[in-house]
Amino acid sequence: MSGNTSKAMIATLGFVTALSGFLIVTVYQATKPAIEENKRLAIQKTVLEVIKGATAYKHFVINEKGELLAAAPGLKGTNVYAGYDAGGKLTGLAAEGRAQGYSGAVETIYAYTPSCQCITGVKVIKQTETPGLGDKVITNKDFVANFDKLDATVKGDALANAIVAVKHGSKKNPWEIDAISGATISSKAIAKGLNGSAQDVLPKVVPLLSQMEGAQP
After folding, report:
1. Would you kindly state where each structural domain of the chain is located, as residue ranges?
2. Contact 143, 180 (CB under 8 A)
3. Which residue range or ranges hold the FMN-binding domain (predicted)?
């Protein structure tokens, strides 16, 4: 193979690689707004489902200074959703949880009720776990019952007790999640996602509850 032929092949390969990269970036940029909008709509729908008694909600962002701000495009910080009943009374809060499962990330929206300092509902908004096994975290009634009143008491800048998944049938404490037999990895992913989010979000939220109570949804 001559030197000129080799250079031509290398140049062609470089062009194809660059073009492929350009097309991938272009498609990503073109579809990103639609993906983000679909996620926003999914979160909106789920927030109202997961917060008991809520008929409307307000999206807040807690910035790095600990200030509570109404969410706006480009505003960075910790997202939290305050749910209100028909009379405008704060009924609960919602936040996002995320952790790695067996075959991909498991993303959730969970509700926190300040009066009991507990998580009172969880909805999975995205998961790619094995059908029939990992998806039991959505369909198994006994597993879902873990979140009727899961302890998430705040003590200082963290939870008083970490939220953990335990072997099926061995739950003894209100902050433990009774895992599903045959879907332990998915159960642990839910627990890990809730614990990671709650440890970060709830200590920031609790001091701001009075501001949320006075806000209009």
Report:
1. 50-213
2. yes
3. 101-201
